[in-house]
Hints:
heterodimer; A: mainly alpha; MetI-like fold; two-stranded antiparallel ribbon; 12 helices; globular; disordered C terminus; B: mainly alpha
Amino acid sequence: MKRSSAMAPYLLWIVFFTVVPTLLVVYYGFTQSGPEGTHWSLSNFTRFFEPIYLRVLWRSVYLALISTSICLFLGYPAAMIMAGRAFTRKNALLLLFVVPMWMNFLLRTYAWLTLLERNGFINLILGYLRLPSLNILYTNSAVVLGMVYNFLPFMVLPIYSVLSKIDRRVLEAAQDLGANSWTVFWRVILPLSLPGVVSGITMVFMPALTTFVISRLLGGGQFTLIGNLIEQQFLVVGDWGFGSAISLVMMLLILLSMALMSFFEGDEREVSLW
Amino acid sequence: MVKFLQRVYVYLIFSFLYLPIAVLMVYSFNNSRSRGTWGGFTFKWYQGLFYDRTIMGSLYSTLIIGIGAAVIATIIGTLAAFGIHNSQGWQKRLVMNLTYIPVLNPDIVTAISLMILFVFTRLRLGYLTLLLAHITFNIPYVILSVLPKLRQLNKHLYEAALDLGATPAQALWKIVIPEIMPGIITGLLLAFTLSIDDFVVSFFTTGSGISTLSITIFSMARQGINPKINALSTLMFTLVLVLLIIVNIRQGRDQKKERADKGDPKKQISAYPADPSGLQSGFNRL
């Protein structure tokens, strides 16, 4: 078990494929190349703060926040029930919850196309029930739906794992001391489950903020999110400088929200970033 | 009554999760191309799948890249875990923080930074760049699966083996590696799964003509609904389901045996089909 030699291939790998690429993104973000050569400049960043792009940023944050809240409000009760006494075979239950996540992410998103389109399954059912048809495909609602569908398990699982570890005797003690079930929930269960809630929020918010697939497939062309903007800069427009600058802003956003979250989560993680 | 309502709520959530998949599967047997009508039962989309050169070609690339990236990442990652386990102080912290970068970075940022690197170094985008990219995002998960096993390892075992006359290499092969094997296997499987499931990084680091299954699905789905994708989803979902059931039955059997051996009455809970820590970290990448 020699020390340095075992790590050598990995160190080389990190330098070439993590450190250098990151530096390249920083380089492209902070430079501007014109006919007279490349020079340092902040113009990529100032461009990002133009109203059209700020609107994209705002829309991404807004949709991610909505999806995260829906996941929290749907997921917390589900996690609580699953951790409670209503079900006995908890392992089977959890397995059932995890199975859809093993399906390819794109296929799960694609499945909603079949359900939501004009002649799709949902409108077929609504038609039988003589209800007005629902046309939300290629709108913000469809994007939010896709995010909630894909990321709901990320919310439920961490909350479940925290809730199922709560010592029943603590709850019984609270009841013995005269708390009714609401008080037990607000004063005991909820505070104890906060670490799970925080990691659930992080695990939903981050991918929701950075996705470009869900918005591309369910949102149609006109609803650009920040992820789509980056994709366009690299694959369509070819403006690497601007694309890198947006990526850097997004990384900063993610780091900030993670710092915020770990502030709430307390010092539980073994290794922290930075 | 409360219990009943609670159950109904959870069943509703489950139907939300499963309904889209179920509908997809049913339509894969629909003879009519339009979703509004049921044109009878058919296998033609499945047949079409096997004659579709694009789909079969991308399945092949997916498997090649997945296996290659998983194996190489497991070797580099396991070695790295040894190194990290045996280092201390700022070096350890630095390497661990660098390890977390690909895990924490949004997929799209990892993807574009690698794309810039490959174009900058004039590597031709294709199999090689895909492989390099996949290895890069796989290694951290291997390290994170192997490290806990190394921490659990009794370090006196290695010393005992040396005392009993084993060479360091023998002690490593016969004692240490078998002890941490479950972590290595978990890392390998996790890496393979992540590779197969990846879309974003592959999308940016592939070149013309070479596409993985995810990329093919994306370009087909962008043109609207295609019953062949339904057939493909059904096959992939069934495969995953069968694999998970097998793994779970095996785990259940092992645990029963263990419990019987130790006479431990306490029920051991394995909440997740595979290693929970590995799966949890895998979520981040989805």
